[in-house]
Specification:
The complex is a heterodimer of chains A (about 725) and B (about 130).
Chain A (H helix, E strand, L loop, with lengths): L12 H14 L3 E7 L3 E8 L6 E3 L4 H5 L6 E3 L12 H4 L6 E9 L2 E10 L7 H39 L3 E5 L5 E4 L1 H7 L11 H4 L2 H15 L5 E8 L5 E10 L7 E7 L1 H16 L3 E5 L5 E4 L2 H6 L3 H4 L13 H10 L5 E8 L5 E10 L5 E7 L1 H16 L3 E6 L4 E4 L1 H7 L3 H4 L32 E6 L5 E13 L2 E10 L1 H37 L7 H31 L8 E3 L1 H19 L2 E5 L7 E3 L1 H18 L5 E8 L3 E7 L35 H11 L3 E6 L6 E8 L9
Helix pairs in contact in A: 1-4, 15-16, 16-19, 17-18, 18-19
Chain B lengths: L2 E5 L3 H15 L2 E5 L2 H10 L4 E5 L7 H10 L8 E5 L4 H8 L5 E4 L4 H17 L1
Parallel strand pairs in B: 1-2, 1-3, 3-4, 4-5
Helix pairs in contact in B: 1-5, 2-3
Classes of the chains: A alpha+beta (about 725), B alpha/beta (about 130).
Chain lengths: ~725, ~130
Amino acid sequence: MLSLGILDTPQEAEFDAAVRAAALVCDAPIALVSLVDRQRQWFKACYGLSGVEETERDVAFCAHAICQNATLVVPDALLDPRFARNPLVIDPPHVRFYAGAPLCVRGENIGTLCVIDTKPGDLSAAQVEALGVIRDRVQDLIEARALADRVRRIMIGWDLAENVNDLIQSVDPDERLIYVNRAWRETLGYTSEQTADLTLDDVIAPEHRAAFAAARAEVFAGADAVEIETTFLAREGAEVEVVGSLNLRPGELPATRGVFRNVTESKRGQRELEGFFSLSPDLLAVLDERGRFQRFNPAWEERLGYPPAELAERPLTTLVHPRDRDMCERALSLAAGQAQRFECRSRTYTGEDRWLVWNIRQSSEGAFYTVARDVTESRLKTARLEAVLEGAHAGILTLDASGRLETANRAAALLIRAFPGELVGRELRDLLVEPDALQLPAERSEVFLPQNLPPQDLRVRRLDGTSFEAEIALKEVEVAGRGLLTCFVSDLTERRALERMKDELLSTVSHELRTPLTAIRGALSLLDSGLVGALPDEAQEVSKIALESAERLHRLVDDLLDLESMRARQLKLARVATSPRDLVETACRGIQVIAEQRGIQVTSTFPSPTDDLVVDPARIVQVLTNLLGNALKFSPAGGQVRLRCERREAGVRFAVVDEGPGIPEDKRGLIFEPFEQLDRSDNRSQMSGSGLGLAICRQIVEAHGGGIGVDPGPQGIGSQFWFELPYHSESRHPD
Amino acid sequence: MRSLLLVDDDPAIRRIAQLSLERSAGWSVRVACDGEEAKRLALESVPEVILLDVMMPGQDGPQTLSELRADPRTEGIPIVFLTAKVLPNEIARLEVLGAIGVIRKPFDPLALSAQLEALLSAAGDA
């Protein structure tokens, strides 16, 4: 009965028409299509009786009627011992007459088409026959209805199967696929037509076929459902990983029915996660609800040395430094609400402490997910930097691009007589006696290029109101795309005092040397000149030697003073526009006599007219003379010294080329340092220098914004001393 | 003969300078060993030029110069400083005091006269 799908369905016009016809034919006020199940009789159609849909089976006349195949006629229930005490008879509706024709569907009596009256009555043979005809019609209706219902159900099932995302297939005992759903076809890339002759071998990956066949055998042997994980092959060959279950398909044809979920993506995701898990340099772990290690990545062994067996089931807190355990436990207890982040010392397997930054979150199931990063190295790095910073003698500040202080070291605080915290947030310029004198890097709009400013000498105001002279060196660095200034503050008070002392000493020594030197040189010069009387030949020779030595001493004193005054930034350049040719010619004239004495030819070459240089001509001639003097000094007699003047992109290059012994490569950087003479045994008195000449040349050239150097001469013979002067330059030293 | 007053506290330098100026160029040289003596000698007979040492005990060169300039009888005498203080800043200080030039020690005795002549002629042109 249940399979007919009719019970408790709404009224239907065909059934209503049937009961009305039955009532009319049998001349009864009430007619019913009554269906009887185990507990009740339920009325599919009801004529002449309102408000009643069912009654209990025990009291039902129809329960009697379905026990026989013929129509049951009860002319007067009160007189019938089967029904005389029936509540339907004694109480309303006070049934007296009943006639019910059993409804037989699929060989089973399921109810009746019946007529009822509250008066006694009877049916003629024709009426019984008519009732039978109507009953047959109702039976056909129930059959048709059940068929339609079944078709609808099949359609619903098919529709569902076609529209779910799961892959569904039915396979007959010969391994032929007799049905696959749309998801199956789309996932594996088949059209409906292409699936017609498929067998399992076409669609199951070879290494999975045996397992699949075994699962099917279980199903055919009577197993309810068999869970299976397998891999399908798509039409184009791609593998599709699935999980699902097999069972027996109901129906006449035996077949296994499989319903599968495509897990290719999630498996791939899982594999990717596994990949990250094993690759991560961070320490990853899943802990159970009591904080014990369940799953963890290889980083634990690689970085902290724990063999997997030692870590499994171990409580996290046992890895933490005893002093940090409370913090760790607190974090674990709070991790259910939101992820906890904390930094603590953690033990390696061999008992060393490492600093780890932990991130812990507890899942709704209670497991803890933890990610820990070893920050020991960066902490050490920071600590070392802080130690350097705090131990530094110079005051070190960092500033934002606008010149506002962000950090200050201890030395800076001591210099400015403040607590480091007091300095943060102040403008650097506000710490200066003359704020406007401070030069900050120019603002730029687009591309950040760090600028270095030359050190600035400025008076810094201490917080107690006093001030001191300081050198302030600003250096711009890029940090994450924005400019950051570092500022080194040095107290110049002591340095300035020393410089003053040195200047005074130098001045005094120079003066004290010059006075006797004046007398010695003057006296010898007078003797040599014969102005104070003629000397015997040998005396003349001796006095000449003395005079040359006095001259040398004079040069030494002059050079020393010259160099020191340049170093003390006292070199004043009297710049005028000068042609390079004039400079060269003046220098050549100056050394002409010595060149002739030594039998050395001096030649000079020039480019086509060059722009004038804006230089101090006397100083540049001094440089040229010095270089030419050196070249003459070291060239063999009869040799040649060439002075070349070449135009360069931004200035002029002068080069003095000699044919002397050359400068060993390892000495080339040294010879511009004071008192560096290549060969101290070289004492040809006429030419001996102070050892300061090249150092002075460098000072002069650099003060002009140029550069100086030495290269080997052409073909490796001799040396080529050169210097370059820019057409336009800022003086390195203030004029 | 052209007259020159040489002022220097160092007798050796006085002698060398005097000898070289007299013998090589024929100057008539009187010598003074300090500023006081220099003023006295300058008043006695006005020299054509005074060669004045800078560093002297008592009254130094610049002081002597300013006193000579303050006296109308000596204010017009060209004065050339003779100095062993040759640092650029030291020279610069002297140059603004009103001397017609500065000759550095040690000087070349044979060129001393020529240096003086050049300074005098430059001052005359100015």
